[in-house]
Fold these 4 entries.
Entry 1:
Amino acid sequence: MIGWNYLLRGPLHGVKRTHAQFNPAFLLMNPHTLVPHDLTVRVGCSLVYETSREVPLLLNLKPRHDPRQSLQEEKLVLGHNLPAEEFEDTHGNIVYRFMLQPGINEIRHDALVCVPSVPDNQEFMDIAPHQPVSLVELPPSLLRYTLPSRYCDSDKLLQFAWEKFGSIEAGLPQADAISNWLHTNIEYRYGSGRPDISAYEVIQRGYGVCRDFAHTVVALCRALNLPARYVTGHLPDIGYVDPGSPMDFHAYSEVYIGGRWFIYDARYNVPRIGRVKVSCGLDAVDGAFSTIYGPARLTKFEVWAYQVPPGVVSVGSPIDLSLRLDGTTEIKGVPVVTVS
């Protein structure tokens, strides 16, 4: 198996790019890494909750403020214009708090987001250092990402982590080895997710869904004193063949190395293009798309994430997959910039 380190540093094999007209979103970029946000992705979801009485709900759907993405346009509909409070939680996630009303509550979120056409982490690979930050120098706000949490029970995995990965060079090589091992030894089994299973239990049973892969990467990294956090968002199939499974939110992980957060996704274990980050935190408790405080049934769940031509689609319009540009190894829509 090709290691993650090699994949990050090497070219994106088997992928060709189709160039398009210049997209103004190309100018939206991270000033620290100068990675252009040159592709447009449509992401969103449609949810229906039914309840017999008022029920408080926290909703976590809005794309985060992040250097790797730029929000172009967004629309959020909460039932029949239900009043809601927007706030930022302790991890920087944007959360809406409101009351579900008796009967049917329809929630729809739709957004156009500009993202880079380069794979995960590519902008960091030529920037040193790649060694872990000493715990005595780690910013105090990040210390929480080194500790066990409900689903990332790193305390139960200390012996396993140090026996399996302790002899590997600290930093990227250790994180690479963890992702490689999980991808090889834990089976992805669609539909096997459970709301009560932790990283330790995932390793014991040997299979799981993306949430389980993310929890286990985070827990093993924390066991090795590498700060790591759980991330949720959308993952379109840009430069990747559509696997044909129903679209869902996607969970992955970020590991703090050399002063930067590196993306690790052991479910796929290859750098992907076009992620839209929604939330992050200690584990799935902080990344849940909804938290319900009472009896309510989710009777509809639909998620979309696909690349679209810039300037063609508007939020709120019907989902039209005939406009979809992704789902193949060909990367379409990359603008050509001519310098005179």
Entry 2:
Amino acid sequence: MSALTKRRINSGIRYTILVIVGVALIYPLIWMIGSSFKWNLDIFGNLNIFPPVGAWTFDHYPNAWQLSMTNNMAFYYMNTLRFLIPRVIGTVISCTIAAFAISRFNFKGKKIILTTVMVTLLMPELAFRIPIFMFYNEIGLMNTFASLYLHDFFGVNSFFVFMIIQFMRTIPKELDEAAAIDGAGPIRTLISVMVPALRPILITVGLLTFMWGMNDFQGPLIFLRMPEYRVLALALRGLIDDYAVTQFGVLFAAAFMALIPTLVIFFSCSRYFVDSVTSSGMKE
């Protein structure tokens, strides 16, 4: 068997595995979209992705847009963005500063701080929710959107700090030295030299923060108890009726509409996401 034939066989096997994994990952989304046009009987009565001919219904989307008796989906979108935009900004800025200090400076206790960052990666998020809840309850920030993003301005997400540190290791330190020779201080070096070079990883951090924030159900459930502060994740839960038959078609339609902004942002920034993942695994 020639080397060319082996390469073709290996490529065929790789692409076959990729196609199988891709179909397995995207199938739930396609099934959800198809089920948003079905009635409950068709959803659970057959295994077809899309409803039978003549059984399509488009009423679920108008009903899903009116998520509750008092507010529509636009209201819950805006409530979600009221905490999500500050969270993205705070996470990107604070994690960048923390990663810059750890990766570019030598100071006493640096290894201890880096070890702490690594250890906190293994801790469940609930371990941090409890002290944050107690702190916000003491200072009177419960039932405010600030309780969902204020702590993100202090570099608390160790996963993103570690990601940015790994990406910074691919940037030559000669750039820092050249900036210092030109008279730039640490802040100027960070803003003018590092931030442009970090653009792929910073966009990735912002993208992941946005995606995880859209899916955050536990945080708003704990910190926001007033109906006027209800966000999209909580509103979707309200479509599940504990005492009557849940209209799953309406639920799937609402879930798909809630997913559209995340999909648009993800595919718009997918190039930067791939670049950052590729570069984060490299070391200078």
Entry 3:
Amino acid sequence: MRIVGNLRNVVGRRRRRWFSTELLQETPMARALRNDLGLPSRDLHEHPESKKRFPDGAQYRIEIPSTENVAALKAVVEESKKYDVRVHRVSQGTGIYLMPEPELKDMMRISRDNQMELCLFVTPRNAWDVSATARTDAGRNSTGGHRGMDQLLFALEDVYRACDLGLRSILVNDIGLQSCILELKRAEKLPVDLQCKVSVQMGPPNPATARLLERLGASTLNPPTDLTIPQLSSIRAAVDVPLDVYVEAPDNFGGYVRHLEVPSMVRALAPMYVKLGLRNSPDIYPSGTHIEGTCVALSRERVRRARIALDVLGRYYPEAEMSEVGPSDLGIPVLE
């Protein structure tokens, strides 16, 4: 009886919240959001089915994050064959400039040969700079981005060098850097086919922020890990670019395990990347040979977790369409 009572209380609170927002839908600001700004004026609790798709017509793709080095990438390829997981994108958090050029080229070559997008983080970033503020309790909120104009130049040089070597996908967590990249692509100073993935570290928490980032040239958006499907659905209504959704989040981003929500996510949020972080795992950024074994083990498990998510999809939403290997809009490295 206590459990039933608790459930009733939870349901009651949710209904009250929804009802309270419904009461605001005819206010001047709610109407302005819908009619003048073209934004939803509430979270979409009904989870409307998204009719938006990737260019190939698919609803979802698979992303394996924290693929930090050559050995980890090889492990992802091996495990994807073992578990029959079609991996479309691998991403990395250590950063471009913290990789020796031969290893960078090896990762690009492996990704190209397996028709996967390789997305590497732009560095340096505040968290690893000399900022004392970034190491305080309150200052940790400002660890994203690039501190000062020198660091912004370092970041742009990092992007330019990587593109010159053949990289075509980068991970960005500074709105100013993203705006510069947009202008440089327009001026053809950077490849026009360069994919810019917005990091969860500056993930859009609402539709207005998501649309702003889309207008600044973001290719895909990684929302905060704790958004509900209604909140994510309101973002989907406002933008067309794919959403990169952690269905399992690392511990330092909440540690959420949401595999059973994947069918509803794919239906409501398409086009989306089903992104497999890993709970109960150490923070490995920045990575290197000193923890290579750990990186490889975590990469293997992320692919295994992807298999679990695909099994859930197959059970509850078997008609969902996944991209084939190597669709043309992926940021696959371009090598001679």
Entry 4:
Amino acid sequence: MPIAIIDGIATRYEVTGSGAPLLMYAPAGLDATLDKWTTQGVYAKTRLLEHLQKAYTCIIFDRRECGQSGGRVERVTWADYVAQGKGLLDHLGIERAHLLGGCMGCCPVAAFAVAHPLMVQSLVLYWPVGGAKYRLSSHQRFAEHLAFVQQNGLAAVVELVTRGGKPFGSDPRGGPWASVIKHDRAFAEAYAKHEVEPYKLIVAGMARGLFDRDTAPGAEPEDLMRVNIPALIVPGRDAAHATFGGALFGGMSAAGGILGCTGGGADGGDDAGAGAGVFGEGGGMRWRSPQETGVGPNSPVPNRGGSNSMSAAPGWPSRLRMLGAFPKRRR
């Protein structure tokens, strides 16, 4: 699988399918690897990547500090994740692309739209993270790592990860660089030599910066309100993906003219899309019923396995285009 060096950090990526370019920020929190599009939860259940690659050139990658991508001990921010995605597009010679984020991947997608709006043709935010429980659990994960470092030191972190091999999302004690430690011996050796106190400040700052609110993080509301990019927003509905956390993207954008469709449903279930709504051209919000949008119960979209969700429909890519999420390129 190809590797691109972006800002001195290796990024493992894959390009699959054909059509307009679609940059995909993977789900799974702090273990966002390209395989999650085919192995994790609703993304595997709906065979999302399989459908999308029929109509789009899908660019999937391991986010930095995840999987086989590299990393650097520094206070990682959403801007760093944006830089990785932009760097990958630059590496591939792509000037403009659709963006899709799942779970925590929605955060850098929103930040990307703010930082580089001319590079973004449209956005899909699928089950954005958010909610008080998500913020608290995220801070708790970093706190457990810091407690382990305080008690045992950084060399013990390397030993733990080397022995167990679990990523940060599975074992918080290993910290946000666990995946890099696991596959890069030189990085692991350098990591163990960091001074503990400065390292603790880096980690604490990273946790506070990434998870600084109860709504969906990634971009400031005032910045999103200035963005005018077609967007589809599918809010989640569980402890890590609070429905209001995803809907916030829509509420914030009403004055700025983001076009979008929202609809929440548990794990792509029968009521996904039951609250579908589309933003009007002038930036105002106009709510539509599932029957109007073609999303949700009694939808004309063909569905598999009895599910009435938009995400489970084999015709999802074309349905997204109909809703304005992936508009055809203007000539």
